[in-house]
């Protein structure tokens, strides 16, 4: 029985990694894949391990999470190769016959392990990508991120501000321009279908419904998701109408972080409809929203001008945001837990 080995950080896993593992498995009976991580890395090893289990369900591929804080380069430690040999042997059930890599370290590693090295796409011709490139520019390398984990890398952009400032109109325009998803204000949909007037008990289902719509929309978004308001807005209106709070809502309104926020100013005419009644409080509500943004420790881009000016300015800002590296907070257990509907 031929036993093969693939090891790497998978930081994050990409389609080149999956190609390597697929081709390696064709050439051995059993394949061990070591997922190596360090505590200081911004995508936790435990999360990467969970991703790999979801991406590679083959029972003949054994996935092992390696937690040792080993040196990363030969110059880091005089016993570099021996340290890694001991780590690999201790995490393998049987002797290794072949090590498969797409890296230059394959030959010296195979020599240390006393096995054969088979390089696969070492020139990165089939999959010209690295995990570093994805971390630094996820949207520019979107095609190489496996579909089941893409929602972690979606840049979530919130449009915020008081009522009748054009959030819905702009969210639609931006989604069309960037060919991706947007989610409408859940409260409007919820209240338009409600046969009785709004009351305090509506705020928790509105908050949960809005968060659920964000989670679902992120799964199919093309790198960016535009949110017409978020839970911070729900919190502001709960305080304005009922002077109360809901702990579940407060925790998420203040704790959830987004890649960026566009704050829409009140310099366009207020338009009345059946769900708007604060036209006389525009300045006060703008102040409430600015305070809420400060309380949640969120930076934002201010959007001013008429509708065309707002659209042009917002597109310029989003084009800047598209160039940003991954948002480290998105991968923390705290943020993942806050996005669970309980």
Q: Give me the count of strands.
A: 10
Fraction of residues in H or I helices: 40-55%
Q: Helix count? A: 13
Going across the major beta sheet, what is the strand order? Answer: 3-2-1-4-5
CATH architecture of the largest domain: 3-Layer(aba) Sandwich
Proportion of β residues? Answer: 5-15%
SSE succession: EHEHEHEHEHEHEHHEHHEHEHH
CATH class of the largest domain: Alpha Beta
The CATH superfamily of the largest domain is identified as: P-loop containing nucleotide triphosphate hydrolases
What radius of gyration results from the CA coordinates? 25 Å
Mean pLDDT: 94
CATH level 3 topology of the largest domain: Rossmann fold
How far the N terminus sits from the C terminus, by CA atoms, comes to 47 Å
Structural class: alpha/beta
- Number of domain units: 2
Short characterization:
With 342 residues, this protein is an alpha/beta fold. Helices cover 40% and strands 14% of the residues.
Characteristic terms for this protein:
5-stranded parallel beta sheet; single chain; 342 residues; Rossmann fold; elongated; 13 helices; alpha/beta; 2 domains
Q: Could you characterize what this model shows?
A:
There is one protein chain. With 342 residues, this protein is of the alpha/beta class. The chain folds into two domains: 3-136, 3-Layer(aba) Sandwich (Rossmann fold), CATH 3.40.50; 154-338, Rossmann fold. Helix content is 40%, strand content 14%. The protein contains 13 helices and ten strands. It has helices spanning 15-25, 45-55, 80-90, 106-113, 131-136, 167-177, 186-193, 203-218, 231-242, 247-255, 282-295, 307-321, 333-338, and strands spanning 3-8, 30-36, 61-66, 98-101, 116-119, 155-160, 181-183, 224-228, 260-264, 301-303. A five-stranded parallel beta sheet has the order 3-2-1-4-5, sandwiched between helices. A five-stranded parallel beta sheet has the order 7-8-6-9-10, sandwiched between helices. Helix 8 (203-218) packs antiparallel against helix 9 (231-242). 32% of the residues are buried. The model has no long low-confidence stretch (mean pLDDT 94).
């Amino acid at each position: 029985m031929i036993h093969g080995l693939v090891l790497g950080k998978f930081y994050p896993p990409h389609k080149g990694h999956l190609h390597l593992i697929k081709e390696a498995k064709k050439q051995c009976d059993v394949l061990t894949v070591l997922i190596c991580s360090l505590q200081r890395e911004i995508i936790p090893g435990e999360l990467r391990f969970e991703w790999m289990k979801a991406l590679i369900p083959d029972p003949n591929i054994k996935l092992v999470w390696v937690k040792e804080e080993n040196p990363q380069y030969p110059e880091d430690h005089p016993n570099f190769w021996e340290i890694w040999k001991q780590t690999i042997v201790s995490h393998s059930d049987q002797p290794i016959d072949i090590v498969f890599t797409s890296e230059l370290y394959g030959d010296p590693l195979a020599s240390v392990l006393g096995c054969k090295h088979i390089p696969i796409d070492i020139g990165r011709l089939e999959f010209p990508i690295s995990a570093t490139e994805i971390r630094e520019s996820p949207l520019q390398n979107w095609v190489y991120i496996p579909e089941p984990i893409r929602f972690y890398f979606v840049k979530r952009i919130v449009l915020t501000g008081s009522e009748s400032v054009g959030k819905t109109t702009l969210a639609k325009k931006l989604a069309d321009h960037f060919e991706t998803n947007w989610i409408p204000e859940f409260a409007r949909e919820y209240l338009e279908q409600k046969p009785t007037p709004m009351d305090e008990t509506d705020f928790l289902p509105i908050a949960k419904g809005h968060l659920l719509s964000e989670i679902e929309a992120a799964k199919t978004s093309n790198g960016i998701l535009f949110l017409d308001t978020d839970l911070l807005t729900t919190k502001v209106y709960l305080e304005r109408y009922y002077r109360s709070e809901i702990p579940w809502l407060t925790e998420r309104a203040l704790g959830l972080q987004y890649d960026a926020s566009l704050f829409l100013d009140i310099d366009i005419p207020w338009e009345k409809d059946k769900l708007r009644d604060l036209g006389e409080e525009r300045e006060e509500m703008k102040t409430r929203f600015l305070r809420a943004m400060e309380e949640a420790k969120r930076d934002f881009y201010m959007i001013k001008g008429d509708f065309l000016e707002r659209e042009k300015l917002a597109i310029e800002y989003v084009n800047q945001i598209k160039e940003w590296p991954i948002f480290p907070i998105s991968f923390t257990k705290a943020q993942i837990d806050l996005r669970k509907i309980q």
